[in-house]
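Data deposition worksheet. Section B asks for the primary sequence of the deposited chain exactly as it was used as input, without tags or linkers unless they were present during the calculation. Section C holds the resulting structure in token form. Section D is free text for depositor observations; keep each observation to a single sentence. Incomplete worksheets are returned to the depositor.
Section A, Depositor: J.P.
Section B:
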Amino acid sequence: MSLLNLQEIVAQAEAAPSGGTTVFTESNEKQKSVARKNLWENREIKSFRERFQKRFGFDFADQKKFPVMHDNFDWNKVAKKEGFSSAWEAMKESDSGSNFPQLLRAGVQSIVNSMYLTVPVTYEAWVTTVNSTKDTELYAPLHGVSFLAEVGKKEIYGESYAAGLDIKLVNRKYGTIWAIEKELLEDDQTGQLAKQASLLGEYCRQAMEVICYAKLAGKFTGGAIAQYANMLVPNTETQPSNEANYPFTTSAAPFIGGGYNRPTSFTTLDQTGVQNGFIGLMEQLNMLGLKMSVDPDAILISPFHRFNLAVLLNSSAYPSVPSATPGAVGNTFAYNPIQSIAKAVISRFMFTNTGVVSTASKAWYIIDSKKPCFVAQLRQAAEVEQEVPNSGQSFNQDVIRFKCSMRGNADWIDPRFCWQGNDGSV
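Section C:
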């Protein structure tokens, strides 16, 4: 999907008739294909794979020929296989990290990429993932054109006008260096090398999860910056110059056009709050003051509300009143009006209102995940580089150093498709 198409989708979504067909649907498989392309097909890794294959006759991305993720994987056994004589000759005189770094780096890269693809994340359930090809991506979501009016006989048709946003998002770089002792590499018989390398891929994957949930909140109390471990994520970077309140605003201080996407007072996750959020989004207005086609289908929470939400969404009977006239509207044994109304998306990386990750965060959101209202752009999913073994710390201290990095960003394109029921403060 090109960025130009993405920019047009929001406008098409606005024009979709209520109750009509879905304009935009993106499965987890499509999200994963974007990740795979950024892992194995980015320029540097693709060039490395081609050079490696020319020298040794196999692609290190092939898990059958180079099974580095297997528990019984052994570098020496791989090197002794038929067709690997040049690697084995180089490794007989010294260790693989100092005299023949390509084979070791290929293994670590394969481990990192494999782990990146298998580690579980939740942001793919509600975020639109796109390939990024430059430092800064431009987005221009339109809010459609003005509504039609009756035209009398021989009267001139009125002219419509459009409204939209001008948004850009810069790719940011994140990374770390992992160093292992030369002796550990030579003597390791436990598979610890593979286990530690896999964490690089896991952390790169989780980094995008952290970025998405930090940007979901947009801004934090007192101007706090989102932080998880050593990672800092800035507040929303896509706030339009003509919107004073972004990405969430109340009816008292609405968006341009009159729309709003949070209550005046936050509430804990309960049936009334969920119902008010659905009603609020179905009353959403675009920049021209016209009704938007918002059909929310997901509720985003931390593990704190996991079982409460399960009761709210799965009870066949009214879940919120313990006693009263049985069967009456809103009382015990009455029909549950929000049963199966949305899917639950539960992340351990949900932030509190102070910018801290907590599994006890009380924040919750309702979103229309079918619309590309929030974008995660991947410039480089995970890339491993090895320090030259005969220089620097590798030479001075007998350590082997790998640098793992990723580039990308995530942020709102149009937050009118999301309802902030609680920022975690209540």
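Section D:
Residues 192-217 form the longest helix (26 residues).
Residues 3-146+162-243+372-422 form a domain with the Major capsid protein gp5 fold fold (CATH 3.30.2400.10).
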